[in-house]
Each structure stands twice: as structure tokens, then as C-alpha cells.
């Protein structure tokens, strides 16, 4: 009788078989914080691993406590707006038109190739974006990480925008358009992972929302008009539930086949936007201290009350 092959020789085949029957991993990532001109502002951690959420977070809360994704079958539901049960933060990060925002993700899996996208939506409420209904927001794309698929050197799946993000310490730079009017906005930042996009309902969207207050030249400035939908004149805007379709070629795609081009999902980037070039995404932004988020009161802002170790708020 012929000798049985050793387990050592069979082990690669066993691993492949196990991998084939395992469901996709659920836990992935979220935005930990953002840096604006060296000042740090906290995002929302849905997992709770970083402790209690600070009251002055600028990140929208969600119930995606396993860092799950939104599948194409939910593109027409509120989940795609600012993730599952997304609810607005009370505070806003002050930023000036023309600034760059350093967005820091809590890691990103190497295998999860895809585009990195950013959108803006104005809020016209008396408290800025603190109580806005996400379903009423209309989004304008300001960055799509074009060309998203940088090259296929060495063969598929190639080198993607997410690889650039990983190489830059899991972070991405977003340029705020220079022509943006003062006032409150929501920044919707998103990664679409395509490693299962060759399967039905396989693409994985990770939308994250952050509140911003765009300052005027003197730090104030009239808020954008109530009901405003455009971030720039003639920009146009789209509800999040109409951004993508499951049949879009950039959503239903096999990245393990040789691709000559990749059709980035969603609308085109607005004229007047300021996407940060891929080569500049390698820049490293370092924190020099905590920023002071603001509360919006009509057309003005006040510093968000800080908290002492005993839990008491101190007004600045």
C-alpha cells in the first residue's frame, strides 16, 4: 500500500479548505480620531474598547459594535447614510475652508482592497448638525481616491487606494474645498472593501460621519441657509440612499481578474474640490494637543464644555 502523505504536506490544502467555508470576518474598523492643523478631535468607537465615549466627540454614534459593514442589499436603507442607527454628535470640529483633515482609522485589513471616498453635506439647523436627520442630508462628493486602482503590478488584485491608506498608518488626508461657505457640515468618509465583491451582495461599505464647523475668515461667519443642499454653487447633491446600486460596475466587480480600469462608485467629484494626491497621502500628521470642539448656536459657536476627572463639566 502506498504511504499516506504527511500532514505537513497536506496542511496548505487543509487551510485553503477551511478558509473557503468560513464566513467573511465581521470586525473591521472605524475612525478613532481626526487631526486638524495638529489638533486632535475624537471620533466614535462603536466597540466600546476605548472606554466611555467622550461627550465632546465629533463622530456620529452607531450601533455597529462589531465594526460591521453595510452590504449592497442595504444601499436603499438608512444604514448607508452614517452606518447602522447613525445619530449625530453634538459637537463640531472647527476647520477653515482650504484646510486638510487627517482622518485616522483604527487599522485596516490588507486584504480589503478598494476606494476611499469623502462627501460633504450642509446642515442649516439652529444647533448646526447636532440634531439633523441624516435622511434629510444631501451629499456632494469631494474625494474619490482616483484612480482607486493604482496598478496591477505583480498581478491581481493589484495596488489600491486602501493600500496607500494602510501605508500611511491607516490614515487619509481629506481636503476641504477652499470655496466652502462658513457654517456647519457633516463629513461622510467611507471605504468600500471589494475582496468579496465578486459574490452576490459581497461589497462591504464602511461609512463614517463627522461634524464640522467651517469658520469664516474671522472665525465666525453666517451659517449655511436652512434647507441648503449644495456645498458649492452648482455642485448638486444626492441622498445617501441613492449614491450606489448593487449592480454598479464598481460595486459588483471581481478584483482577482485583471482589470484595465475601475469605475469608482457614486457621483463624480465636484468642481472646486481639493482631493489630496496619492503621493501626498504619505504625509504623517502629528498631534500637538487636543482640539476644542464647538457647539453651534445659530450663526455662532461656543467651546464645548470640558469634563474634569470627577465628571463635572467646566466651561471654557
UniProtKB/TrEMBL annotation:
GO terms for molecular function: hydrolase activity; metal ion binding; monooxygenase activity. It catalyses: [(1->4)-beta-D-glucosyl]n+m + reduced acceptor + O2 = 4-dehydro-beta-D-glucosyl-[(1->4)-beta-D-glucosyl]n-1 + [(1->4)-beta-D-glucosyl]m + acceptor + H2O. InterPro entries: AA9, AA9_LPMO. It comes from the Eukaryota. It is found in: Secreted. Its cofactor is Cu(2+). GO terms for biological process: cellulose catabolic process. CDD domains: LPMO_AA9 (cd21175). Residues 28-260 form the Auxiliary Activity family 9 catalytic domain. Gene3D superfamilies: 2.70.50.70. Keywords: Carbohydrate metabolism, Cellulose degradation, Copper, Disulfide bond, Hydrolase, Metal-binding, Monooxygenase, Oxidoreductase, Polysaccharide degradation, Secreted, Signal. GO terms for cellular component: extracellular region. Its EC number is 1.14.99.56. Belongs to the polysaccharide monooxygenase AA9 family. This is lytic cellulose monooxygenase (C4-dehydrogenating).
Amino acid at each position: 500500500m502506498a504511504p499516506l502523505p504527511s500532514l505537513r504536506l497536506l496542511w496548505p490544502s487543509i487551510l485553503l479548505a477551511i478558509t473557503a467555508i468560513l464566513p467573511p470576518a465581521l470586525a473591521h474598523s472605524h475612525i478613532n480620531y481626526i487631526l486638524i492643523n495638529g489638533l486632535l478631535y475624537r471620533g466614535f468607537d462603536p466597540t466600546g474598547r476605548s472606554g466611555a465615549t467622550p461627550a465632546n466627540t465629533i463622530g456620529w454614534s452607531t450601533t455597529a459594535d462589531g465594526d460591521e459593514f453595510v452590504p449592497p442589499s442595504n444601499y436603499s436603507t438608512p444604514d448607508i447614510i452614517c452606518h447602522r442607527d447613525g445619530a449625530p454628535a453634538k459637537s463640531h470640529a472647527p476647520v477653515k475652508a482650504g484646510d486638510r483633515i487627517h482622518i485616522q482609522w483604527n487599522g485596516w485589513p490588507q486584504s480589503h482592497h478598494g476606494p476611499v471616498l469623502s462627501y460633504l453635506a450642509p446642515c442649516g439647523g439652529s444647533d448646526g448638525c447636532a440634531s439633523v436627520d441624516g435622511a434629510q442630508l444631501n451629499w456632494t462628493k469631494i474625494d474619490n481616491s482616483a484612480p482607486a486602482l493604482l496598478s496591477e503590478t505583480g498581478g491581481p488584485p493589484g495596488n489600491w487606494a486602501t493600500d496607500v491608506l494602510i501605508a500611511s498608518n491607516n490614515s487619509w488626508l481629506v481636503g476641504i474645498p477652499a470655496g466652502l461657505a462658513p457654517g456647519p457640515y457633516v463629513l461622510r468618509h467611507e471605504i468600500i472593501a471589494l475582496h468579496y465583491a465578486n459574490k452576490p451582495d459581497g461589497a462591504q461599505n464602511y461609512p463614517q460621519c463627522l461634524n464640522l464647523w467651517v469658520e469664516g475668515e474671522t472665525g465666525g461667519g453666517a451659517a449655511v441657509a436652512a434647507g441648503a443642499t449644495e456645498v458649492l454653487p452648482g455642485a448638486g447633491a444626492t441622498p445617501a440612499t441613492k449614491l450606489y446600486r448593487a449592480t454598479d460596475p464598481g460595486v459588483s466587480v471581481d478584483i482577482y481578474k485583471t482589470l484595465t480600469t475601475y469605475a469608482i462608485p457614486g457621483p463624480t467629484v465636484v468642481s472646486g474640490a481639493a482631493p489630496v494626491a496619492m503621493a501626498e497621502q504619505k504625509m504623517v500628521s502629528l498631534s500637538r494637543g487636543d482640539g476644542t470642539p464647538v457647539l453651534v448656536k445659530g450663526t455662532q459657536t461656543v467651546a464645548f464644555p470640558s469634563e474634569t476627572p470627577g465628571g463635572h463639566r467646566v466651561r471654557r
